[in-house]
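User: My advisor asked me to double-check a structure prediction for Carrier domain-containing protein before group meeting. I don't want to rely on an old file, so could you generate it fresh from this sequence?
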Amino acid sequence: MISPPTAASVEATIIRLLIEMTRIDAARLTGDTRIFMELGLNSAMILELLMRLEEDLGRPMVGQVDWLHMETVADLAGFVAGRQDDGASRS
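Assistant: Sure, here is a fresh prediction for Carrier domain-containing protein from the sequence you gave:
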């Protein structure tokens, strides 16, 4: 059985996707980077990010994220890794 990704590996995936989407310098992106305040992502860009995460991780993300609690890249990574853990424990 393949183990679910860790928060650290999901964070690395999110950062890679954000670099591809925004062309922001990788040195500016960390777990503490604020998705809205620092990156200025709009709703269309968030949707694209979630769709790309779905592709990379093979799990539904669109409509699953409570953005009121997702301020930073690390917040999102922790949520996504937690969803992976939840899904793995149910199988």
